[in-house]
User: What shape does this take?
Amino acid sequence: MSQKVIDFFSSIGMMVFGVGLLFFCSITLTAKPVQNFVSRLPSPTIRPFAEGEHQALALPVSRPLLPMLREKNLIYSATMTAKTAMIVDDQTNTVLFKRNTDEVRSLASMSKLMSALVLNELITDWATTTVILDEDVDPFSHHIFVGERYVLGDLWKVALIGSSNSAIQALVRTTGLTEKEFAVKMNEKAMMLGLNSLRFVEPTGLDSRNMGKAVDILRLFKTALQVDRITAALRLPEYYASPINGKKHQVWSTDWLLTNWIPNNFNKDILVGKTGFIDESGYNFVVRVPGEKSHTIRVIILGASSNEARFTEARDLAEWTFANFVWPEDADYRRLAAGR
Assistant: This one.
């Protein structure tokens, strides 16, 4: 073989060797930092999952800041006749005060909050009219009378503002359901909302077997107030029932805080409540109360000794709460939180 051929193949060999060496060095230098980084990671602890256990991704939990007392262990010491009382922050549902809240008590006319939710779903034409029948009328209710013809929207306001049993009965009748069938709808709604202590046997609250715990009544109240038609009615201090074929009847709200018959300084544009009374329940009241700094709470009084007491006790509890709790947006909240 000639010298030129030998020199040619030698040159090719050197070139291949050089390219191979360059490739090897580049791989080694690139991989080494990754290898060092990986070697510094902590070794994971590996274990098999137990039977029925599922792998979950642990993420940081964000918890809202909650109202807190200005002074630790401060106790409300005013005399109360109510058998049960409870206050929650309207935004976060934080319990701010409670007394004897495990007891299941008769709702009385607070049952109409659930009746209103069901009626709001069943009635689609509030301009329809109906004539009041004998079977509708509660002899102790003097807002509407047999033979009068009403627009359903008018009866709705009478039912909630004046807590009229007759108006509720008439509205339920127009749905085509019997009282028992309507009560089934009420109980189904309670179950759907997770209000497990609530039980209903009829729509007015006259039956003492309409029962529940304070916490579930407060939740029902909040849900009801999300329906504009309910809130708008309960905010009216007075109303005139207007039968198509008769004279108007003045209807006052049963909420004496709203009418200011129990003096108070709460903003009446936001204040809204619902009453209830039968002999077995005592005097009940649930109310959403606004504070001076846009704080809002819900207060429930069950089993007060008198009509007046349920309002004064709710008012006094609300005022005590606003005076002794601070909210995250208050100026001294961070200072107090840091000291705890």
User: Anything to note?
Assistant: The chain is about 35% helix and 15% strand. The longest strand covers residues 282-290. The mean pLDDT is 87. The two ends are 96 Å apart (CA to CA).
